[in-house]
Design a protein that fits this description.
By secondary structure, the chain is α/β, with parallel strands linked by helices. The protein has 12 helices and 11 strands. Helix 5 links the parallel strand 6 (110-115) and strand 7.
Length: 320
């Protein structure tokens, strides 16, 4: 590793040992199933560990034979235009490794990837072992890296699920070196109607259900929900009615012509992903841009980026 590692609780340097990472006080963070474990599994992201270890390859391009993750990643970052050979890249909130795979396969950068849940195990199954890959189970607020070291910091699909979104943005920016780039996306507040949606109406109950109970309920009902969604889309009422159906946005996020079993699997996963997180906090693009500027970023850009299967709210900038 050419990134300096530190114990985030006392800032002491960490060195590799047979059992994991060790600081000067003999505190050890174990290496288990492909990842260094800085935190325990029992935290607010347990639902993500459940879903990504259940749907290990569903969103990973090389497993799904789709190119959704690749298109989204490069549309939002623009990094296909850059030579990232030997650059140090930090990915925060990697889940099962859908974007980890893209970074490893389509750049020559060294990737340090973090997730708060035990989805790190699914990431290692999908992408390890690899000499350029280093996986850590850690909090966005307490990452095991000395500050200001990374050439690129990326956080996609995660910020809205953290308890303090501004603090999360600050933590990401602290990891970038001067001249380094930070790229985030997030659920946007588009207007007063943003939370007038089945997800936000039902989440007060669904996020309290056990993960297994919620998964089974979605799986039992997904077929008629898909049929109903398609019916309203077909008669031209989809944009009005389908937001009140407890199912993911099929038309807005998924390719057309998927085999039904693959469509069904993705719908179960994406619907579970809607209703299970402890936090779901959409943000205004202007607010996230202000945070970037507040915490020392220049050349800040914020807006919407469209690609074949979606439209993302993105903010990016360069560390001053």
């Amino acid at each position: 590793m050419n990134i300096s590692l530190v114990n985030p609780h006392n800032n002491q340097p960490l060195t590799a040992a047979p059992e994991g990472l060790k600081d000067g006080n003999a505190v050890v963070f174990p290496y288990v199933k492909g990842a260094y474990r800085i935190v325990e599994d029992d935290n607010y992201t347990e639902n993500f560990g459940f879903q990504w270890n259940k749907f290990v390859g569903t969103q990973v391009d090389k497993a799904s034979k789709l190119a959704i993750s690749k298109e989204r990643f490069f549309a939002e970052t623009g990094w296909d235009k850059e030579n990232l050979t030997d650059k140090n890249i930090l990915e925060v909130g990697s889940g099962a490794g859908r974007f980890t795979q893209i970074i490893l396969d389509f750049t020559a950068g060294h990737l340090y990837t973090v997730d708060y849940s035990n989805a790190v195990e699914a990431n290692f199954v999908n992408n390890g072992p690899n000499d350029r890959l280093h996986i850590f189970q850690a909090s966005v607020y307490e990452m095991p890296f000395a500050k200001g070291q990374f050439d690129k910091v990326v956080c996609l699909g995660v910020l809205q699920h953290t308890p303090d979104v501004e603090k999360s943005v600050h933590s990401l920016i602290e990891m970038a070196k001067p001249g380094g780039e930070v790229v985030v996306d997030f659920y946007p507040v588009r207007g007063w109607w943003t939370k007038l949606h089945a997800k936000y109406l039902l989440r007060p109950w669904t996020k309290k259900m056990s993960h297994e109970q919620l998964y089974k309920k979605i799986d039992r009902n997904i077929d008629w929900l898909i049929k109903t969604y398609r019916f309203f889309s077909r008669i031209g009422l989809g944009k009005i009615v389908n937001r009140f159906l407890p199912i993911c946005d099929i038309d807005g996020t998924l390719p057309k012509g998927l085999p039904y079993e693959q469509l069904r699997e993705i719908c179960v996963l994406d619907t579970f992903d809607m209703y299970s997180p402890h936090y779901d906090q959409p943000q205004k693009v202007s607010t996230v841009k202000e945070w970037f500027q507040k915490y020392g970023m220049k050349e800040v850009w914020g807006g919407y980026i469209s690609y074949s299967h979606g439209n993302a709210a993105v903010v990016k900038g360069v560390k001053a």
